[in-house]
Amino acid sequence: MTENLSIIKIGGDLVNNDTVLASYLEALTRIDTPKILVHGGGKQATALNEQLGIASPMIDGRRVTTKEALAVVTMVYGGLINKNIVAQLQKYGCNAIGLTGADANSVVATKRSPIPIDFGYAGDVKEVNARFIYGLLKENILPVFCAITHDQKGQLLNTNADTMAAEIAMALTTYYKVSLFYCFDKRGVLYDVADESTLIDQLNTGTYTKLKQQGKIHQGMLPKIDNGFHALTNGVDTVRIGNITMLTQSANKCTQLFL
Amino acid sequence: MTENLSIIKIGGDLVNNDTVLASYLEALTRIDTPKILVHGGGKQATALNEQLGIASPMIDGRRVTTKEALAVVTMVYGGLINKNIVAQLQKYGCNAIGLTGADANSVVATKRSPIPIDFGYAGDVKEVNARFIYGLLKENILPVFCAITHDQKGQLLNTNADTMAAEIAMALTTYYKVSLFYCFDKRGVLYDVADESTLIDQLNTGTYTKLKQQGKIHQGMLPKIDNGFHALTNGVDTVRIGNITMLTQSANKCTQLFL
Fold first, then answer.
1. How many domains does chain A have?
2. How many Cβ pairs within 8 Å bridge chains A and B?
3. Does the reported pTM lie above 0.80?
């Protein structure tokens, strides 16, 4: 029987609050299966950009990664957040290792074409070195990825953390039965973001397409859901979106995606 | 016959200049033996401290690592410098991985006692996980360490990079015949810092003690030399201090330490 593997992506809002983050990390260590953590960054990078007076241009609601912004992201995601998560996990007796995609060539990306829109140093994942990651898991080491990749030509690239998690999940299906968890502060995908009782506990592609056309899915959820369906189509066994309790309480409601 | 291993520590001044750093990294990739890189940080952390208005107190000529300064060091050494070095090495086809001591629990330290002097979040190396590092080297992966460690209780600690290199070198003698190289911008230990022709090409403990008593050794060299002798006393085969050419040109003059 193929062994289970959990890929857990935790979002920016969770990472910004030390107490919330600590409870997530503690919950993580209680998951029995091998696991991989992928984290976003969010507010801390924005705050440092502001402190340093670095402009942070947006096009079509998406941030442009200038050279200066990439340096900040590398410092905040790759250094501050990543290494503090690793140190916290070590405290809980969990042997974590912090990685960018450049480390051991684990996640290679291509710089996004500047045409039609130049998003700067943004990378789209090209290849995941599943063999190396598998080797770590076999040694009982928990890989903690921040969403930075490289192009094998010396350039680091800022990458979407939801996509990074999905790509790693897909690549690891060679070795494991993979479950992908998108963790954030809501119970899952909601009809009404302000009302947690409006949870959609099962979402298939047909319903998703309809709801999206009707504008009933919150904009911020689209990357998670799109990446989640992409992962399901490419061999990942289950994709769930929800809050911390879905990691530790099996009866807890969250949103599960179905093709 | 035991295999050779080179531990190369590159100092702050080299790391601060992109062109110089690139030539070092390129030279590194031409060394045939397995190798480990340890880098300092220096000016970039100081510059970020200044930009952010973070005080950087000194006691007895040594910097105190406040909580805020530790965050900066974690960003600059653990993120910006470390990940850019890794990406550059990957460009040269060298499969590098960037690490702090927290990663895979590779270097554990103890927070320095606040008595008699409180240096803040400064760590003294307690244990090096040589087995993990050996496993990477066996996979043809080049570990790149920044001088940050952890205490296994969730705390990252700022550590002297010369000491970190010496401790890693000593720990790896279990598996290899180890050569330790302290690389900086001079040809080695000089009688007169302003005159490269005054190189001391061989330095033993007796001569060192005398020269130190006479105040003839530049203050900045003491940690390298002290750590170097400590390494030699603890099984490291050779310790050399010099510039980039000692890595690639065997006939080049540098300072070699002898007990």
1. 1
2. 117
3. yes
